[in-house]
Amino acid sequence: MLLLLAVFLGGSLLLPVLVRWLGARAFAIGALVPAAAFVHAVIRTPQVLDPATVPFQDYEWIPQLGLHLSMRMDVLGWILTLIVTGVGALVLLYCRWYFHDEGREVGQFAGVLLGFAGAMYGLVLTDDLIMLVMFWELTSILSYLLIGHYRRRAASRRAALQALLVTTLGGLVMFVGVVLLVVDAGTASIRELLEAAPTGPIVDAAIVMLLIGAVTKSALFPFHFWLPGAMAAPTPVSAYLHAAAMVKAGIYLIARFAPIFAFSATWRPVVITLGVITMLLGGIQALRETDLKRILAFGTVSQLGFFAVVLGYGTQAAALAGLALVIGHALFKSALFLIVGIIDRQLSTRDIRELSGVGRQAPVMATTAFITVASMAGIAPTIGFAAKESTITALLDDALAGAVWGWVALLGVLLGSVLTAAYGVRFLWGAFWRKKDAAGVAMPQTTWPDPPVGFLSVPIVLAGATIALGVGASAVDIPLQQYAATAATGLDGAHAGHLALWHGLEPALGLSVVAILAGVGLFLLTIRTGWDRRPRLLPGTASDAYYLVMRGVDRLSVVTTGITQRGSLPVYVGTIFIVLLAAEATVLLAAAPDRLQLSGWHTPAQLVVAPVMAAAGIVAVRARKRYTGVVLVSVTGLGMVVLFATSGAPDLALTQILVETVTMVTFALVLRRLPSRMGEHNASVGRVPRAILAVGVGLTMALIAIVATQARMFDPISIDFTDLAYDLGHGKNVVNVALVDLRGWDTMGELSVLVLAATGVASLVFVTHRADLLSATRDLPQTMRRATARRPMVETTEGPRFQTAENRNAPRAWLVGGHQVRAEDRSILLEVIVRVLFHTIIVVSIYLLFAGHNNPGGGFAGGLVAGMAMVMRYIAGGRWELGAAAPTDAGRLLGYGLAIAVGTAMLPLFFGMSPLQSTVWEAEVPVLGQLELVSSTLFDIGVYLVVIGLVLDVLRSLGAEVDRQAATMRSRGVRA
């Protein structure tokens, strides 16, 4: 099971690549992953049905937190696994035809959809509550990406954000409940928790929080509004997430804990009340919709309320019936959504007011829809009929035995069944019937182009399974009995009944028939009276309340921002410094150190460098020009280089000088667009108070450094770093090994910060997008002949070209982008120097990357050196030269680098080792001798790429994009 989870992860990463190669046909390959998981679950059936051999896998992930990657396939998990993987495989196969026009543009969608299937697979099988929460939130994030697939449509973006906010909020509340439950029970294992069955006020509070998570995830009232909005997603998403997977997560949670918590004080009032309200609201609204997809969406809302009532009721008979309902719903609702997708793709409409006479032209599809609607309404011989009859019997028996909540649930289910039959008939009438317009004249028949056979095959398979499971209901009853046995008996003391296609003439059958006939009559009444076309009954909806809250939050944020963010950088920095001074100075004065051991200097170089640094800092304060101040401040940084170098830290010295250089370049890029003199537009005010504050902060930080160095009570762990670096990290460079191995998690966090910083800078500068529009390689001549490639390049009116007899007298092109630079800004000498040094600097950066494990260097230093090479190309040849130097998107470098680092950190987990644990490979190579490669080098490569991506992003945003904007302004006659 853990291996299959890893396969889902790997498949979701690989599938986008396959889609680029094969187009929509790659969906069929992606379907093999959930299909394999489905087959695996089927093979494990004998073990699942034997309580003594229930499949269980456990991997201790974080021992200190008691966190386990544990998977347990009991009957409930097994049923949900079959649903998630079986329907998931069919939906992915369906996508092969649904997206045939979009081809290679749906690679990300394919990967996310397969990843979502893997997250659901982990959610229904995990035995650890904390891991359940992690999978829970992962499904929320992935569903956000799937619902918002059409990101150019405002409706899709709005629906995706709505679903994310609602489900994530519920997930956070549920997480608090999980923590309370785990602390109170003393275990995070779901199996052990069910065996312990804890009680008490803390448990009651935790139950309510768990139910809030289930209510938001399964779109129960009052959070039901996000599901119809999510119909903005592609139809395969609706068929999978909103019929068989995501919305089932909340129902799964209710089913998992109902056997032990159903009779607690808070469970039934919450679950049954909200379930009945949801059932009725969804059913009523489904009768008013004209979009086929929204009819099914509100029908799904109603059905989810149905499941919450039955599975949440908590008796054995209800548990048996409820799980059968979940199976039936996954089949018939997925098939109906997929049929709507076929109609939408073939006719480009889902509006029942525009459809007429489709049924006679598409008899196979219409028959499939009739079968699935029959299962939804509870008509024999479908699985829906057997499940519905068992449901009514279970609730009726408990109600007759005196259970008040039994009567509430029974009446709610019967009313819900009436509405289900009504909107089921409305769906069939809207999609396939020949209709008349408002004047009573027959509408023209809608022309129906036959879809590919494969497109229709998936709904047919689901409809066939609906009938097969109905006919074989007695076989389905066998595994469901094991789950039902975990619940309590009803008030009548009876155990669970049996799932069967025919129980004889019982009261449940009569009530079911009456409900169906009443539903058909209700539909006819709504059509005859025009009730479905009247304005909405209530002045507002839950969705209106959501948007009202969101507008309130937005307005509050605007008011808060207006009060606190005044646009003055000195005010922001001054506020931070005042708080720092007040907090730290108070502590220093209240608890003065009892001993101080100060040294005048450690090396003679400090006596020379420290005064220079201090003098530069003082002069920088007095500088009137911005660039002068920046240069003087960098003197202090260069002074730190000398201090590091003379203190036995060459790695730090190398990194410091590179960082200082890149920082200087960044400052120079920014200062180009600012007035050269400070105070030119806005004079400085409050100089004396600011000087006092600056001196106070400086003295405070100095005292903190003195006190901190004297406060050590134990030997530092760094004493052992030399031995640890060699024994664990297999390297002699302590600094580099600490970064990529001993303190690798710190470096991982720093990489994330770098990626966020680069993205933030680019987002501020690029107005519409951050794609690479600068690459000059398209202007280069293409050749396959090596002799031609060796010729020098010359500048022509068409751009750089290889030298020929015709252009022999043209000037030499030292850089491919140099000819684009204005003459007054161009330096041929600089171009020659850059041309000579660029490749050498790149080689040096690669050397630093691989030598850093045992010598000064590493991925960070090597990346900065490569970044400096990019800076040289940009300075010499402008933004076109930068595009030629790195003809790739900076965001990709950042993403690839972070992915390599994270992958290197996680890979040891699959071999039973700790994250980031290093492995060394040694080999004797002829001529070269013994070679050694440490796995942490791969982590360093990730760092290398992230740093290059950061520098490239800064150059393209603060450099090239600013240049482009300035050139545009000059072309319009505006002074840049």
Quick take:
Helix content is 68%, strand content 3%. It has 976 residues and is mainly alpha-helical.
Labels describing this entry:
two-stranded antiparallel sheet; two-stranded antiparallel ribbon; globular
**Beta fraction:** under 5%
Q: How many β-strand stretches? A: 6
Poorly predicted spans: 783-787
Largest beta sheet: strand ordering: 1-2
- How many H/I helical runs? 37
Average pLDDT for all residues: 86
Q: Helical percent range?
A: 55-70%
What general outline do the C-alpha atoms trace? globular
- End-to-end distance, in Å? 62 Å
Q: Based on helices, strands and strand pairing, what is the structural class?
A: mainly alpha
Task: Characterize the structure shown.
- This protein has 976 residues and is mainly α.
- It contains 37 helices and 6 strands.
- It is globular, with a radius of gyration of 34 Å.
- It starts with a helix and ends in a 5-residue tail after the last helix.
- Residues 783-787 have low confidence and may be disordered.
Strand-helix topology:
Elements: H1 2-22, H2 26-30, H3 32-43, H4 45-49, E1 56-62, E2 67-72, H5 75-98, H6 107-125, H7 129-147, H8 154-185, H9 190-196, H10 201-217, H11 226-229, H12 235-241, H13 246-261, H14 267-286, H15 292-313, H16 316-347, H17 358-361, H18 363-377, H19 383-400, H20 404-432, H21 453-471, H22 473-484, H23 507-529, H24 542-564, H25 569-590, H26 604-622, H27 626-646, H28 650-671, H29 687-710, H30 721-727, H31 734-742, H32 744-765, H33 786-789, E3 793-796, E4 799-802, H34 828-851, H35 859-885, H36 890-906, E5 920-925, E6 929-934, H37 936-971
Antiparallel strand pairs: 1-2, 3-4, 5-6
Helix pairs in contact: 1-3, 1-6, 3-5, 5-6, 5-12, 5-16, 5-21, 6-7, 7-8, 8-10, 10-13, 10-14, 12-16, 13-15, 14-15, 14-20, 15-16, 15-20, 16-18, 16-19, 16-21, 16-22, 18-20, 18-21, 19-20, 19-21, 19-23, 20-23, 21-22, 25-29, 26-27, 27-28, 28-35, 28-37, 30-31, 31-32, 32-36, 32-37, 34-35, 35-37, ...
